[in-house]
Write a structure and sequence with these properties.
The complex is a heterodimer of chains A (394) and B (110). Chain A is an alpha/beta fold. Chain A has two domains: 148 residues, Thiolase/Chalcone synthase (Peroxisomal Thiolase, Chain A, domain 1), CATH 3.40.47.10; 218 residues, 3-Layer(aba) Sandwich (Peroxisomal Thiolase, Chain A, domain 1). Chain A has 13 helices and eleven strands. Chain A has a nine-stranded mixed β-sheet. In chain A, strands 5-6 form a two-stranded antiparallel sheet. Chain A is globular and about 55 Å long. A five-stranded mixed β-barrel of chain B has the order 1-2-3-5-4. In chain B, a hairpin with a 7-residue loop joins β2 and β3. With 110 residues, chain B is mostly beta strands. Chain B folds into two domains: 26 residues, no CATH class; 72 residues, OB fold (Dihydrolipoamide Acetyltransferase, E2P) (Beta Barrel), CATH 2.40.50. The chains are: A alpha/beta (394), B mainly beta (110). Chains A and B meet through α5, α6 and β5 of A and β1, β2 and β3 of B.
Chain lengths: 394, 110
C-alpha cells in the first residue's frame, strides 16, 4: 500500500459567484473559480501544468484567458461519470505526468456555449478540449432512453420517480421522509452565504409544492444555477508549501452502467450500488468511519439511494434514517449535504459537494462546520447508469 | 426471444441471446401484465403531450423479470397502483404503432 503522505492531494479550492440567470458569462465564472483555487493552493497561474474539465467553459478558452499552455489535457468521462476529470487528475499526478492539475466544472443553468453570444466554436479540438463532448461520452449508457422518450418520459424527474415509487412500495418510504432531506438541506443553506435559496423552508412548504412527476414535487428537484467550482490537485512535494492541510483521496469507485435507466435486474437499485461496492473494496475504511457525507441530490430520492448504496444505512432504511432531520443535522451522527446541497445551494453537477467535503475536512466551513474535526468524508455523484464516489481523508 | 433458454431480448434487439449465444427469433408477448412501478407526470415537458400522463414499467405475464417501458392510458391517476393488471393496446402515429397499456377489462384467465 502506498504511503498516504506520498499521494496527490487537494491543494486549492475555488468557487465563483453562483446565482440564477447571472449576467456573467461562463468563461468569467470559470476564470473566477479557477483563479481563486490557484491562489488558495498558494500557487501562481503558471505553476499549473495540467487541466481537467467537462462542461460549459472549454479548457482551450480558459487556458488562453489564463495565459498558460499546460501539456496535459484531461476530461474524458471514464467509469466514474462526472468525477472522472477529478480522478484522472489524481492518476496523472501519481504517474508523474503533472505536478499541479486544475480541475474545474462550470455549469450554465440554461445550457449552451461558454459565451451565450458566441455560439459553438469550430476550433474545439479533442486534444485540448477532451471534455467538450462529455454528453457523447455517456451515450452508451442510454440503452433504454429511446423507449423512455417513446413512453413520454421526457425528464429525469420521470425516470427517477419510477425508482422512488418502487422504493416506497418495497420499504414504506414516504414523501415526508423525502421532505426532511429538502428541509435539512435548506437549514444548511441558511448557513452558507453562497447558497442560492436561503429562506427558511418547512415540511409543509415541501408537501404543498407543485407536483412535477408523482411522487416528486418541485422541492424534490435540484436548483439550476450558473456557477463554477475549481479544485487544484498537487504532487505531495507541494504539501509543505501549501497553506492548507492536505485532503487526499483514500478510494474511489465507478460503475459500467449496465442496465441503463430502468433495466437492472435489481431495480430500483442503480449503478451507484456497484460504484460504492468498488470504492469500499479499495480501502480499509468502513462506512462507520465516515464523519460527513456529501451525496448527490439531483433529486431527493437519489440521496436516499446513495445512503443505502454506500452502506451508510441498511437497505430500505434511508427513509427512517433522514426522518425528522436530526441524524443528518450538524450535530447528528452523519451531517449530510452541509453546503445546502443541489436542492438549496445549487446544481453544480456534484462538484460543489466535492468542494464542500474538502472544506469540511480542512475545518474551514465556518457556521456550518461539522464539530469534532471530521477526518473522513464521502462524496458521490450521479444516478441511473451514471455513478462515481470518492472517499476523502485529511 | 432465445428459442433455447427463452430469455427475451429487451430493451435492445440483439441477434444472439446474451445468456447462451443462440440466435434469437421474433416471439409474441401475450400483451397482459402488471404494473411494476409508475409515475403520474404533471409537468408539461412536450407541447404535444398534455399532462397528467402516466409512465410505467410493466411486468408481462410471459416473463415478470422483463420490465416494459410504456405509457398507461384510460386510467385515472388515482386508480394507478403497483400490481394493477393491464393489457396492451397500440397507438397509431403514422406508420408507427406505439404499445401502451390500459387497465385489464376482461376476466380472461392468464
Amino acid at each position: 500500500m502506498r504511503s498516504a503522505s506520498k499521494e496527490p492531494f487537494v491543494s486549492g479550492l475555488g468557487l465563483s459567484e453562483i446565482g440564477r440567470r447571472l449576467p456573467t458569462t461562463s468563461l468569467d465564472l470559470a476564470l473566477d473559480s479557477v483563479r481563486s483555487a490557484i491562489a488558495d493552493a498558494g500557487l501562481e497561474v503558471g505553476d499549473v501544468d495540467g487541466v481537467a474539465t467537462l462542461g460549459d467553459a472549454p479548457q482551450s478558452v480558459v487556458v488562453r484567458a489564463l495565459g498558460i499552455e499546460p501539456e496535459l489535457h484531461l476530461g474524458r468521462i471514464g467509469s466514474s461519470a462526472l468525477f472522472s476529470p477529478f480522478l484522472s487528475a489524481v492518476e496523472a499526478i501519481r504517474d508523474g505526468r503533472a505536478r499541479h492539475v486544475l480541475v474545474y466544472r462550470n455549469v450554465n443553468m440554461l445550457g449552451g456555449s461558454y459565451d451565450p453570444a458566441a455560439g459553438p466554436n469550430p476550433d474545439w479540438d479533442p486534444a485540448t478540449d477532451p471534455g467538450q463532448n462529455w454528453r457523447a461520452d455517456l451515450e452508451h449508457l442510454n440503452t433504454d432512453l429511446d423507449l423512455l422518450l417513446a413512453a413520454h418520459a421526457f425528464s429525469a424527474a420521470n425516470w427517477f420517480a419510477l425508482h422512488c415509487r418502487r422504493h416506497m412500495h418495497l420499504y414504506g418510504t414516504t414523501r415526508e421522509q423525502l421532505g426532511w432531506l429538502a428541509v435539512s438541506s435548506r437549514r444548511y443553506a441558511e448557513l452558507n452565504p453562497h447558497a442560492v435559496y436561503r429562506d427558511p423552508l418547512t415540511l409543509d412548504d415541501y408537501l404543498n409544492a407543485r407536483i412535477v412527476s408523482e411522487p416528486f414535487g418541485l422541492l424534490d428537484c435540484d436548483v439550476p444555477v450558473d456557477g463554477s467550482v475549481a479544485v487544484v490537485l498537487s504532487h505531495h512535494a507541494h504539501a509543505e508549501d501549501c497553506p492548507h492541510p492536505p485532503v487526499r483521496v483514500a478510494a474511489a469507485g465507478g460503475a459500467d452502467g449496465v442496465g441503463g435507466w430502468t433495466q437492472r435486474r435489481d431495480f430500483p437499485n442503480m449503478a451507484m450500488v456497484d460504484a460504492a461496492a468498488q470504492m469500499w473494496d479499495r480501502t480499509d475504511l468502513r462506512p462507520a468511519d465516515v464523519d460527513v457525507a456529501q451525496l448527490y441530490d439531483g433529486f431527493t430520492f437519489l440521496t436516499l439511494a446513495w445512503l443505502e448504496a454506500l452502506g451508510l444505512c441498511a437497505r430500505g432504511e434511508s427513509g427512517p434514517f433522514v426522518d425528522g432531520g436530526d441524524r443528518i443535522a450538524l450535530g447528528g451522527a452523519l451531517p449530510l449535504n452541509t453546503y445546502g446541497g443541489q436542492l438549496s445551494a445549487g446544481r453544480l453537477h456534484g462538484h460543489w459537494a466535492l468542494h464542500e467535503a474538502c472544506t469540511q475536512l480542512r475545518g474551514d466551513a465556518g457556521a456550518r462546520q461539522v464539530p469534532g474535526r471530521p477526518e473522513v468524508a464521502v462524496v458521490s455523484n450521479g444516478g441511473g447508469p451514471m455513478a462515481g464516489c470518492v472517499l476523502l481523508t485529511r | 426471444m432465445c428459442p433455447d433458454c427463452h430469455r427475451w431480448s429487451y430493451p435492445e434487439l440483439s441477434a444472439r441471446c446474451i445468456a447462451c449465444g443462440t440466435p434469437t427469433v421474433p416471439a409474441r408477448l401475450r400483451g397482459i401484465g402488471t404494473v411494476h412501478t409508475f409515475t403520474v407526470n404533471r409537468h408539461r415537458y412536450h407541447p404535444d403531450v398534455t399532462p397528467p400522463n402516466i409512465i410505467a414499467l410493466i411486468e408481462p405475464v410471459d416473463d415478470p423479470t422483463l420490465r416494459l417501458i410504456a405509457g398507461v392510458v384510460d386510467c385515472a391517476p388515482e386508480h394507478m397502483r403497483i400490481g394493477l393488471e393491464v393489457e396492451v393496446s397500440f397507438e397509431e402515429h403514422g406508420d408507427v404503432h406505439v404499445p401502451v397499456f390500459r387497465p385489464r377489462r376482461t376476466g380472461v384467465a392468464v
